[in-house]
Amino acid sequence: MNASEKISDRTRYLESLKEVHNNWDIIVIGGGASGLGIALDATARGYKTLLLEQSDFAKGTSSRSTKLVHGGVRYLAQGDIKLVREASIERGLLYQNAPHLVKNQTFIVPVYTLFDKLKYLIGLKLYDKIAGKLSLGPSLLISKKETLQKMPGLRSKGLQGGIVYHDGQFDDSRLALNLAQTILENGGDAINYIKVTGLLKDDTGKINGVTAVDIETHSTFNFKAKSVINATGVFVDDILMMDKPGSAKTICVSQGVHIVLNKEFYLSANALMIPNTSDGRVLFAVPWHNKVVIGTTDTPVENASLEPQALEKEIDFILETAGSYLDKKPQRADVLSVFAGLRPLAAPLDGGQKTKEISRSHKIIVSSSQLFTILGGKWTTYRKMGEDMVNRIEKELKWHHQIPATAGLHIHGYANNINWQDPFYFYGSDAELIRTEMNADANEWISDELNIHKTQIIWAVKNEMARTVEDVLSRRTRALLLNAKESIRIAPQVATIMAKVLNRDEAWIKKEVETYNKMADKYLLK
Ligand SMILES: Cc1cc2nc3c(=O)[nH]c(=O)nc-3n(C[C@H](O)[C@H](O)[C@H](O)COP(=O)(O)OP(=O)(O)OC[C@H]3O[C@@H](n4cnc5c(N)ncnc54)[C@H](O)[C@@H]3O)c2cc1C
Question: 221's torsion region: left (phi>0), alpha (psi -120 to 50) or beta?
Fold first, then answer.
């Protein structure tokens, strides 16, 4: 089957994956940034690769980020130059390989004291220097007048000026989907809604495959492989327990929350960076799909979940901190959506170390039964994480080294000269195809507020592996994150359109809408 057949006919695709002669070089468990980066690297090197995701691609942390492709100004302040250098290089490569999704975004740090002015200017100049040729533009000091012109609505009292700098801004779940499409187009395999339930071992105790279940039909499978990778984010310890019951915890989980507001609260094309909040972190307000995303927090949590819940104190903190910088102070009732994500941090908490102090760099561990696990990392460095993991597998399993091939690999949708005002910009090279299909039903807009058209729903099912209403409303379009209430309003229409394409009945529609509403309700502030 070719890539588009695999995408459009899941049943036949799954049948083809279970054929007995299938024996993969590499099976990757987890379809977030880490797993997709590993599977794409392995595929691009020519390894026979299969990625299995228990839910939808990017259902976990990878759809809940701050949407920055960044070197990490905060890590610079922590003195982690190595991570900043690595992330700055990766930022530049991603900007080159997915120009339809990664935008060169100007940020402004407003400064209120002379000391801060000097501190942040010097720091950000260093940030530029570390990025070298892959810098997205020079940092510079601007006057108070210019700062207020560029950031209407910013608190002017005591303002000394601003420091402008550049980073990347992207759409996380769209990138995840485009990575899955790129894997398929390069001859690899990647499928959603297949959950790994166990690990297979040979007579010597080495892992040689996985058992898995299709979440849709409950059919079970044995997939054989020469190596198995655990890239399950905050769930890595569950897979480690399958390998060795009683394994020690390898990660600690930290929650980050964002709120989404109408852009009237922050009428600027420049993102705002608040460098030192009352809890010693940074807070961003970033323009995104015609709205503004504000976050984030860093709260240790005990248990991992695919639908983490924002705490009241996190919401209050964001509203208060943003409100102290903006003339128009946002209130709870203004929040269009609130979403939480969980950081899989690669270090046990010891010696009173706070989660915000734990390095965001990644770590690879290999168990005695040869389960390869990746911990930590950032969306920005997903490609390097993939490369490091495949290098490690080659080394541990004594495979002949294949040259990594993703540094210059274009990601599905690659297109230049993107018009960022176009509501369909994120489809990149697919936008024209969608527009052509739209012409037949030109007036069938489902949401004017969110610019969602019927054709996008059909496209998501036929060409983007969407299986549920949530896949469409949360990760193919970003309706859930942009305006949860509006997404609930259109859910029944979306379910009806999907049912036609997927050949589902009324009962499916009813169940999908109920399930969606129950989940989306948690993104609303009451
Ligand atoms: C609040 C917040 C803001 C962030 N902002 C940024 C940012 O702006 N820029 C940046 O670069 N990074 C950012 N990050 C970091 C980045 O988002 C994460 O490092 C990255 O998304 C983690 O990806 P992952 O693949 O490791 O985990 P996940 O995205 O969680 O993926 C793991 C996947 O494994 C699947 N899985 C689990 N168990 C199984 C199983 N048994 N079988 C099959 N599949 C399974 C899960 O369903 C899940 O989809 C942020 C993180 C947070 C929490």
Answer: beta
- Residue 341 to residue 117: CA distance in whole angstroms: 32
pTM for this predicted structure? 0.97
Backbone angles phi, psi at 107, to 5 degrees: -115, 150
Amino acid residing at 313: K
Q: Which helix (H) or strand (E) holds 147?
A: helix 144-150
The pLDDT of residue 349 is above 80: no
Q: CB neighbours of 263 closer than 8 A, spacing ≥ 6?
A: 287, 290, 291, 292
pLDDT digit string (tens) for 67-92? 999 988 877 777 788 889 999 999 99
Alpha carbon of 343 to ligand 1 centroid (Å): 7
Confidence of residue 350 (pLDDT cuts 50, 70, 90): low
Residue closest to 466 by CA, chosen among 181, 252, 268, 265: 181
Q: What pLDDT, on the 0 to 100 scale, is given for residue 359?
A: 66
| DSSP H or E run through 492 | helix 484-502
How far apart CA 183 and CA 178 sit, in angstroms, is 9
Three-class secondary structure of residue 109 per DSSP: strand
Q: Does an H or E element contain 30, and which?
A: none
379 CB near ligand 1 (under 6 Å) = yes
Give residue-wise pLDDT tens across range 88-104. 999 999 999 999 999 99
Pocket test residue of 29, 34, 65, 470 for ligand 1, highest count of atoms within 8 A of CB: 65
Which of ligand 1's atoms lies nearest the C-alpha of 296?
1
306 pLDDT more than 80: yes
Ligand 1 atom having least distance to the Cα of 258: 1
Q: Which amino acid is at 234?
A: V
Query: Which structure tokens are listed for 42?
Result: 């392995």
Long-range pairs for 444-450: beta carbons < 8 A, 24 or more residues apart: 446/490, 446/493, 446/494, 447/479, 447/486, 447/489, 447/490, 449/483, 449/486, 450/477, 450/479, 450/482, 450/483, 450/486, 450/487
Which atom of ligand 1 is closest in space to residue 297's alpha carbon? 1
Residue 65 near residue 411, CB atoms below 8 Å: no
Ligand 1 pocket member 65 (CB < 6 A): yes
In 309-318, which positions are buried (b, 16+ CB within 10 angstroms) versus exposed (e)?
A: ebeeebbebb
Band of residue 355 on the pLDDT scale cut at 50, 70, 90: low
Q: Contacts for 456-460 with beta carbons within 8 Å, 24 or more apart? A: 457/494, 457/497, 457/498, 458/497, 458/501, 459/430, 459/434
Q: Which residue matches tokens 């007579």?
A: 203
Is 236 touching ligand 1 by the criterion CB < 6 Å? no
**Half-sphere exposure (CA, 13 Å, Cβ side) for 348?**
6
